[in-house]
Amino acid sequence: MPKVHRHCWKCSSEIDYLSIHCNRKDCGVIQSVFPNDVTYFEILGAGNKINGQLQPTYDIDPGQLRRNFLLLQQRVHPDSYSTKEDRQEYNYASQQSSLINKAYQVLRDPLSRAKYMLQLNNISISESESLQDQELLMEILDVREQLEEATNENNVKAIKNESEDKINNIIVELSQAFNSNDFYMAKELTVKLQYWYNIRNATIDWQPGKRVEIFH
Question: What's the structural domain count of the chain?
Answer without folding.
Answer: 2
